[in-house]
Structures are given as C-alpha cells and as structure tokens.
Design a protein that fits this description.
The complex is a heterodimer of chains A (292) and B (305).
Chain A: H1 2-30, H2 37-54, H3 59-87, H4 89-93, H5 95-118, E1 131-134, E2 137-140, H6 141-163, H7 165-175, H8 177-182, H9 187-212, H10 220-234, H11 239-259, H12 265-279
Antiparallel strand pairs in A: 1-2
Chain B: H1 3-19, H2 28-54, H3 62-75, H4 81-103, H5 108-132, E1 138-139, H6 146-168, H7 171-181, H8 183-188, H9 193-219, E2 221-222, H10 224-227, H11 230-243, H12 249-265, H13 270-287
Antiparallel strand pairs in B: 1-2
Helix pairs in contact in B: 1-6, 2-6, 2-7, 2-9, 2-11, 2-12, 3-4, 3-5, 3-9, 4-9, 6-9, 7-9, 11-12, 11-13, 12-13
Classes of the chains: A mainly alpha (292), B mainly alpha (305).
C-alpha cells in the first residue's frame, strides 16, 4: 500500500515539477507571475483529448502538436499583448501588479473560451490503462509513461542549465538581469525564448495530465497555484529546487489526501500556498528577506 | 467638510432619495435590475477604500460577501433581519482583521495572489463544514420581498459611496494615498502604515458582508460554491478598473456598463460575458490606465520600492 502511494506521489510530483519548471522560466527571467499558466496546461490537455477522440492520435504523438501550439500561443501573447504593454509608461511604472491583472484577464478569457467551445463538462479518455505490478504496487502503464516523460524533461532541463551556453545565460539573467545585459547577453531574445519554452512545457504537462485525469476548462488554476508554491519553495530560477519542491508537494498531497479525505485536497493546496507565502517567501533554501 | 465633499455627498443623497420611488413603478423586473446594480455599486465602492486608495489590489473581496451570506444563512429565521445585517458586517470585518494582519505585510503581486488564495481557502473550508453538517445548500424561507431588499441595497450603496468620498477627503485617506505613492517614505514621516492599511481593509469588508446577506435573501438559496465564486472578485476589480479606481465616481461608470452587459448576456452566454470582462480588464490596464473616468494617472498603484 505505501509503495503504491509513494509511486503515486512520484507521478504527481514529477508533473508538478514540470509545470513549475515552465512557470519558473517566465517568472524567473521577467519576474512576472503568469497566472494563466494553468490554462496553458488545460489547452495542452484538450489538444490530447481531441487528438485521441476525434483523430485517434496517440497522446504521446499529441505532445508534438501541443508543445508547438502552446509555444506559439506564448509568442502571440508576447508580441500581441506584452510588447505593446511595455511601451506604456503607466504600465511599466506598476509592471508587476499590472501584468498580474493582464494575466488574470488572459486566464479568464482562456477558461471561458474553452468552456464556450468545449462545454464546461468534465471529460476523459482511456489510454494505456493496463495494470503492471512493480514493487508490490499496482500501476497503470499510463502513470508510468507520465512519470518517465516528466522525469526525462526535468533531468534534461537540469543538464541544459549546467552545460549549454544558453542555459547558463538564462541562469545569469535570472540572477542579475541588468548585469547580464551589460556582459552582452541578449536579454530581449532570451525573454522571448523563455516565454515560449515556458508555455510549451505547460502544454506538454497538459498532455501528460490528460492521460491519467479528467479534464475541464477550469482545471488550470489549481495547477498555477501549485506551481507557484513550488517556485517559491524551490527558489527563483532554481531548477533543482523546483524538482525538489515538486516532489515534496506531490508527496504532501498524495499522502495528505490518503490520510484524510479527497475533499480536503483543495484546502490543503491553498493552505500550503498561503503558509509558504506568509512564512517562507524566500524559499526553503533562500536566506534573508525576499523581494516582496 | 469642504464644499466639494458636501456637494458630492448631497448629489449622492438626492439621487438615492429619488431612487426610493422606483419600486412604486411596480415593475418587478426593473426593481430587480436596479437592486443588482446597487449591490455591485456597494461592493465596488467598498473595494476602492483599500485597493484604489492604497494600491493593495485585493482579488479576494468575494470572501467577505460570502462570509456575510453564510452568517445570514445560519441566522435567518433565528434572529430578526435588523440584527442579521450588522452581524454579517461585523463577521466580515472580523475576518478582514484575521486576513489583513498577515496579508498586508506583503506587497504588489504577492498581495494580489494571496488575497485570491485566501478567499479560495475560506470557500473550501465552508464547503467542507457544510458537507460535514450534511447540508447541500440551504433554502431560505419567507425571505423579504424585492422592494424591501431594494431599499436596504440602496442604503448600502449610498453608505459605500459616502464612506468612499469621506475617506478620500480625510487625513486617513491622505495617509492611504501616501502609502500608495511610497510606503517607506510614509512610514518615515510618521504615518502608522500598518494600522492605516488594516483599518482600510476592515472598512472595505463590512459593507460587502451585508451585501452577501442581501444577495442570498434575494436568491433564497445559499450554495457556498456559488456565493464564494472567485469570478465575483474579478468582476469587482474589473468594474473599478474600467471606471477608474482612484476616485469614488469612477467605479459607478464601470459598474453601470458591466451590469447592463451582464443583464444582456448572463442568461444566455455567461462565458461570452466573462470573455468580454477579461478583454476589458486587459485592454484598460494596457491602453487606458485611467479608466473611463480618464484623467487618472496611477490606477493600479503598487507602492514604490
């Protein structure tokens, strides 16, 4: 029983880590909290759902549709709304709160467009539900696929930030934006790259979520909250921290729900969110006072 | 009191006195429509006391309305209405102290997202309490008719406008604006910023608590998922921002516009209504920073660092 829970926690945690990774890229580089992040997850989930139900596309193949689609949305948002907003002096004066309202508006629009197009009903599809036995645990194959892909991308991201020049440049940007520009890092281009990659990863996470859970137009916001908690816990732009925070939250949620009742899940998510924001806004590994 | 303030309170009072005649037209549809308008005015004018004046944008104001509604649902038929309403306001004010004390320490986007999270947390707590009591929604019997609710709504809307006007012209309001412009500087010159922020937050919560009671007496049904719907918070912010949230006259324009739109779309196309609301919020924040009311420079003000 407990090894079953542990693997369930790993699956949930790896997806959370993935979603947080996407959020971290946007939040870390530009210090803008994309509260519409969960809605991109929702869109990725619908791409996979319609892919398999209408066209019979395997959800794994759908990844290659959902990711570019989400990234394109990111690009459209960046150029269509964001670049324009940056030209306004009043907007820039209060950029953090203003951009939050813009993202909130985006989130409301995406939710309701999805609800209008796809009805607000919960939907799901059956995919790779054959049970395998592993370490005394019964596991459907789809959960193992989710775990494998999420883990692969997360490990890939860790390597990317260690090895590649672009990865190191992004890390530099996250730590010292002004100084990065001074040493010749193309800040605007990296902003765009991070925006699109962040959205793309959210789309990927959406496909993975749809493999094991029911989806709906309003599924996104809890993911945004969870990802935000993880980003705060793990530290801005800290990929290792994100992975650790994701697994921690996966364990907390899975065991918490198992020990109490599923109806406490939302209370737990928001409770942890508020506690983290109030008690340790500088993260688990950070020191001193965070920018608040 | 300065002449401008007196004149504006006078206008608000005369308009309110004229509006008393409305139920005698005998058209229940119009009375209901204007009742809805009045509740949104009360919510939005209350909201600007904290968010318009200090720049601490609360995206969780529905929580006060929801708690007021819950208190009313629990006490309806137990105690008379004239006692329920102050109790709802008091409960909302007390919740504002509990929420505001920790939350007002963080600023800018953190405060925005935190208020949203707290309101969702309270919603799910109430949902769980209700399901533990095996209640799936509460029906309120023998609720007052729409005319009586209209008069109370009118009173609350009038009070919210007058409070907003008086705060604007008081030392208290000047202190709040100082916090918005530069919190450190305000503190340095001796403004007790924590106390002022908390007082404004509590003041902005009381009337929404009473509005919550009115709303469930109107629908005669209490369902926590419906009354604590976060969309209400988004609507409050959007109405205020569209009109211009810095001064009391601004939100009236935003409320009027969106409530008419709501009346046209809500019954058949609620999603389209919310899409338009989202688009308006984005559009106004980016292109019309002063809102419809124009002239304003800093509407969603975060205290400078």
């Amino acid at each position: 029983m407990s090894s079953q829970l542990l693997i369930a926690a790993l699956v949930a945690g790896s997806v959370y880590a993935l979603i947080a990774l996407g959020l971290n890229l946007v939040y870390g580089t530009m210090r803008l909290l994309n509260v519409a992040h969960g809605e991109i997850v929702m869109i990725g989930a619908y791409v996979a759902y319609w892919g398999i139900t209408l066209l019979g596309i395997n959800p794994i193949i759908s990844i290659f549709i959902a990711v570019p689609f989400a990234a394109a949305l990111g690009m459209a948002f960046y150029f269509g709304i964001f670049k324009r907003a940056m030209r306004s002096r009043e907007f820039m004066e209060r950029i953090e709160a203003n951009s939050l309202l813009v993202f909130f508006g985006t989130s409301v629009i995406l939710q309701n467009v999805a609800s209008l197009l796809f009805t607000p009903d919960q939907r799901g599809y059956h995919y790779a539900e054959r049970i395998v036995y592993f370490a005394n645990a019964q596991l459907p194959i789809n959960k193992l696929i989710v775990l494998a892909i999420a883990a692969l991308v997360c490990i890939g991201a860790v390597v990317f930030f260690r090895v590649s020049t672009l990865g190191i440049a992004i890390k530099g940007l996250i730590q010292q934006r002004e100084a990065s520009a001074l040493v010749g890092i193309p800040v605007a281009r990296i902003d765009l790259i991070c925006f699109c990659t962040g959205f793309g990863i959210a789309g990927l996470a959406g496909v993975l979520v749809s493999m094991t859970e029911e989806i709906s137009p309003y599924m996104g916001f809890p993911f945004t909250i969870t990802a935000f908690v993880i980003v705060i816990l793990g530290g801005l732009g800290n990929v290792f921290g994100s992975l650790f925070g994701g697994l921690l939250l996966g364990v907390l949620e899975t065991f918490g729900v198992a020990l109490t009742a599923p109806s406490y899940r939302s209370i737990m998510i928001y409770g942890v969110f508020i506690a983290v924001l109030l008690l340790r806004p500088q993260g688990l590994f950070g020191a001193g006072k965070a920018r608040t | 009191m300065n002449p401008r303030l007196l004149r504006q309170i006078g206008i608000a009072t005369i308009v309110s006195l004229l509006a008393i005649a409305l139920p005698w037209l005998g058209n229940e549809y119009y009375t209901g429509f204007f009742f809805t308008l009045l509740t949104w005015i009360a919510l939005t004018e209350s909201w600007i006391v904290i968010s318009g004046m200090t720049g601490y944008v609360s995206l969780g104001h529905v929580v006060f309305m929801g708690l007021g509604a819950y208190v009313a649902a629990l006490t309806w038929m137990e105690i008379p209405l004239w006692a329920i309403l102050p109790l709802c306001g008091l409960a909302a004010g007390a919740l504002a102290v509990v929420i505001g004390y920790p939350c007002l320490r963080v600023r800018g986007p953190y405060f925005v997202i935190l208020t949203f999270g707290v309101s969702e947390l309270v919603k799910f707590i109430v949902v769980n309490i209700e399901s533990a009591l095996s209640q799936s929604g509460r029906v309120l019997f023998a609720a007052p008719d729409i005319n009586d609710l209209f008069f109370i709504g009118l009173g609350l809307a009038w009070a919210s406008v007058v409070i907003a006007l008086m705060v604007r012209d008081s030392r208290f309001g000047a202190g709040l604006r100082a916090i918005r412009e530069n919190e450190e500087a305000a503190e340095t010159i001796g403004i007790s910023v924590s106390a002022l922020k908390l007082a404004a937050f509590v003041l902005s919560a009381i009337i929404p608590g009473m509005v919550g009671a009115l709303l469930i007496l109107r629908s005669t049904y209490f369902d926590p998922l419906q009354i604590f719907n976060p969309q209400t918070s988004v609507l409050i912010v959007t109405m205020a921002v569209i009109g211009g949230s810095d001064r009391p006259a601004g939100p009236l324009l935003g409320v009027g516009f969106l409530v008419v739109l709501q009346e046209l779309l809500w019954a058949n196309l609620p999603q389209l209504y919310m899409i338009i609301v989202g688009a308006l919020l984005i559009g106004v924040v980016i292109w019309v920073p002063g809102g419809i009311y124009g002239r304003l420079q800093r509407l969603i003000a975060v205290p400078a660092k």
